[in-house]
Amino acid sequence: MNQHAKNRYQAGLRAQAPSAPPPPPPLPKLDAEPLAPGLHSFVVAPDQPKARFDRWLAEMAPGISRTRVKTLIEAGYVTIDGLRATDSGAKLRAGQAVSIDIPEPGAPEPAGEDIPLTIVFEDDYLIVLDKPAGLVVHPSAGHETGTLVNALIAHCGDSLSGIGGVKRPGIVHRLDRDTTGLLVVAKTDVAHQGLAALFADHGRTHNFSREYIAFIWGVPERRKGTIDAPLGRHGTNREKQTVLRGTRGREAITHYLVEDVFCLNAEGKPLASRVRCALETGRTHQIRVHLAHAGCPVMGDPLYATGFRTKASLLPAPAQGVMAGLRRQALHAAVLGFDHPVTGEPLRFESKLPEDLRALDKALRAG
Predict the structure, then answer these.
(1) May I ask the CATH class of domain 38-102?
(2) Rg (CA), the chain
(3) Quick check: do 106-201 and 206-367 share a fold?
(4) Pairing of β 180-186 and β 331-339
């Protein structure tokens, strides 16, 4: 065997030799003591600028996951330079002061609370309620007590469906905290399953109807129409939903009818109108996002009508006064109809406008 052949032979042996085992992974570092409930403050160091906010805070706050950080940001427990933080994906700047107020851990299960309920219908299987503004439907970060679920537990005791879990017993659908109107809750698992199927179908094959009354800025180009625009979470503001093109969003369809127009300007165009919306799907903030997407956001909406606040000065004085005191979106769940999931009986409920929206309606008509 010449020298070249010998070298090739030895190289082949080396190639076939088993590789050395990888070094063992480093021992995990012991976690720091988790932050106790209460207020904690941090300052962005000079070598930490441009860090993503939620990731930076999760690293600075031992025992607080990034998901938990996002939840606390959305619930208003975090500030930057003394102002409430809203964007968990924001980039930080050196020297900024960040504070996080970690709440006391809530009870593992919500307790009953003596909160008045407006009951429209109730039997052994379900309960239909007329929800006031300001009432959160179920416990969540920042709203562990004082919710509709707490009131239902006190009213119904153990007779609520358990399908929704301990935090959402009987909850089949939701209304936003400041949206008023009709909502149905299941008292048994059988009723919950039947109602969930009806809401998923949304009247495509079964008797089901949900109608809302909204007071909006301006008026849609067509007095009757359909807004078919997929929705998903906003890219920077996690409190908001937005229209997403293509396959990124979830199907969302809203049918609307303009019932009245108010306060014509010098060009003969209405400053506001009243519309009735029927849902074919049930996405978070669906009506509010769809109407804003159409250029006619719900009056008073703190998330989707911020660019229309100056329009209030164009309204007649009585309407300006009502708008100043409204402090919520002018949206009301007025109609709820479905076949009873157990008895099959057709049910239909209607709710009159609450006092604040009746006042708005009257003031707008006066203009």
Answers:
(1) alpha beta
(2) 28
(3) yes
(4) parallel
CATH code for 206-367?
3.30.2350.10
Q: Enumerate the domain spans of the chain.
A: 38-102, 106-201, 206-367
Provide the whole-model pTM: 0.71
Query: What angle is formed at CA 55 by the lines to CA 50 and CA 57, rounded to 5 degrees?
Result: 95
Q: Of these residues, 54, 176, 178, 356, which one is catalytic?
A: 176
Average pLDDT, the chain: 86
176 flagged as catalytic: yes
The Cβ-side half-sphere exposure at 178, using a 13 Å CA radius, reads 15
- Token pair in block for residue 84: 């409430």
Is it the case that residue 211 has pLDDT exceeding 50?
A: yes
Q: Which CATH class is domain 106-201?
A: alpha beta
Q: CA separation (Å) from 288 to 54, 230, 294?
A: 27, 13, 10
Between helix 355-366 and helix 317-326 the angle, nearest 10°, is 160
250: pLDDT strictly greater than 50: yes
